[in-house]
């Protein structure tokens, strides 16, 4: 039987060039499905990876209790800030003011939220991945900003040496920094004291970044907060903080991607059905002759499925290639619901996503070839030989 399957399948594949027009319908249709699916999944993966790169196991973030994991809605007073700094298990701490400003995007010239983060000098020790790559660091007490690389590329007026208006004052961009492709690269940083003054947040901060003596150990800190009735704070690891921020949008994009791909897949599957039915119809006499020569029904079914799967595989590989060369590494920005600001990220077409796309292609090929294959196997030999 295996020999028969091989012979008929080889015959079918050799005849594909003669049906190039109809076969291309399957290839293009399934290729489109795979390209769209891979591109959208790569978007979700890139966004998630950017936020996940922002966290480190030896860092934690402290927010006001009940602030729903959002720095923008958190306020910490001086008393709470000083208390955190005295706790065991904390190697370094940085009080930070988190706010947003409207700055036009280069692509649309429409205003979008950009994070303005006021930090202490210890913020750079806590985040060693933050490196100035152009210009210099801001000077304390002056209206100076350093811009993340992604923010500089995405927004108008955020180039080195330019000035941007914030709170009716001019702020000079004195440096550009990188942070290993993390979400921090979409932010503007300045001195904490000058940010508090400019944004009228005197004696308060939004959050605290902690460098822990023992990575991931935050329970003793939370117990200390809970045991002090005058303190209303919550601590979480930085990795978990960014993971929770990415979860909603990643799930939304992934669900949208599968939904669009499913709708397109239905169309591609019907195209495959029509093409394979037509292929079987034009080869009625050929299939009946093979059956009359002793070839069984199973080899006929498998050969038709093999043809459909082969065309689907070509389409899947074509769609995967389009997604890889067209989208991998492509930089976009979107609103992060967790931070209420724009986050720039790169599409990430990973091997796992490519495999998912190919599996979809093969599944569509099998679904589109199954019923035509069964029709070919059940075809009455005598009627088929007469061409009825």
Detailed description of the structure:
This protein has 388 residues and is of the alpha+beta class. The protein folds into two domains: 2-52 and 245-386, no CATH class; 58-215, no CATH class. Helices cover 52% and strands 22% of the residues. The protein has twelve helices and 14 strands. Strands 1, 3, 4, 5, 6, 7, 8, 9, 11 and 12 form a ten-stranded mixed β-sheet that branches. Strands 2-10 form a two-stranded antiparallel ribbon. It has a two-stranded antiparallel ribbon with strand order 13-14. Strand 3 and strand 4 form a beta hairpin.
Number of domains: 2
Class per helix and strand makeup = alpha+beta
Strand runs, count? 14
Unreliable runs, pLDDT <50, ≥5 residues?
none
Q: What is the terminal-to-terminal distance? A: 28 Å
Number of helices: 12
Based on Cα principal axes, name the global outline: elongated
Major sheet attributes: 10 strands, mixed
Strand percentage: 15-25%
Question: What is the succession of H and E elements?
Answer: HHEEHEEHEEHEEEHEEHEHHHEEHH
Rounded Rg: 30 Å
If you average the pLDDT, what whole number results?
A: 84
- Overall helicity: 40-55%
Brief write-up:
This protein has helices at residues 2-14, 20-53, 78-85, 122-126, 149-154, 192-198, 219-226, 238-282, 284-292, 297-327, 351-378, 381-386, and strands at 59-64, 76-77, 90-104, 111-119, 131-135, 144-148, 163-166, 169-178, 187-191, 204-205, 207-212, 233-237, 331-336, 341-346. The protein has 388 residues and is α+β, with helices and mostly antiparallel strands.
């Amino acid at each position: 039987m295996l020999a028969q399957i091989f012979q008929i399948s080889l015959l079918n594949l050799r005849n594909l060039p003669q049906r190039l027009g109809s076969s291309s319908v399957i290839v293009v249709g399934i290729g489109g499905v795979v390209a769209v699916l891979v591109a959208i999944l790569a978007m979700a993966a890139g966004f998630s990876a950017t936020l996940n790169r922002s966290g480190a196991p030896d860092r934690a973030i402290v927010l006001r209790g009940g602030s729903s994991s959002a720095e923008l809605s958190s306020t910490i007073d001086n008393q709470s800030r000083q208390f955190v700094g005295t706790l065991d298990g904390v190697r370094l701490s940085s009080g930070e003011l988190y706010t947003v400003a409207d700055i036009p995007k280069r692509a649309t010239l429409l205003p979008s939220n950009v994070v303005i983060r006021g930090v202490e000098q210890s913020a750079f020790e806590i985040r060693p991945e933050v490196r100035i790559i152009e210009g210099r660091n801001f000077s304390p007490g002056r209206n100076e900003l350093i811009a993340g690389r992604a923010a500089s590329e995405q927004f108008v007026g955020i180039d080195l040496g330019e000035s941007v208006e914030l709170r009716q004052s001019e702020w000079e961009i004195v440096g550009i920094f990188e942070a290993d492709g993390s979400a921090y690269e979409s932010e503007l940083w300045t001195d904490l004291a000058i940010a508090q003054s400019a944004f009228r947040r005197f004696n308060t901060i939004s959050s605290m970044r902690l460098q822990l003596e023992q990575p991931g150990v935050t329970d003793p800190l939370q117990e200390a907060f809970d045991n002090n009735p005058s303190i209303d704070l919550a601590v979480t690891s930085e990795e978990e903080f960014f993971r929770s921020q990415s979860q909603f949008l990643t799930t939304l994009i992934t669900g949208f991607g599968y939904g669009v791909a499913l709708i397109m897949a239905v169309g591609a599957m019907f195209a495959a059905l029509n093409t394979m039915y037509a292929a079987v119809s034009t080869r009625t006499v050929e299939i009946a002759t093979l059956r009359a020569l002793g070839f069984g029904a199973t080899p006929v079914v498998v050969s038709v499925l093999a043809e459909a799967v082969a065309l689907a595989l070509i389409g899947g590989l074509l769609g995967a290639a389009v997604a890889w060369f067209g989208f991998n590494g492509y930089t976009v920005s979107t609103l992060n619901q967790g931070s209420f600001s724009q986050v720039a990220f790169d599409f990430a077409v990973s091997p796992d996503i490519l495999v998912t796309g190919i599996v979809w292609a093969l599944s569509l090929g099998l679904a589109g070839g199954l019923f035509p294959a069964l029709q070919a196997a059940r075809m009455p030999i005598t009627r088929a030989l007469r061409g009825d």
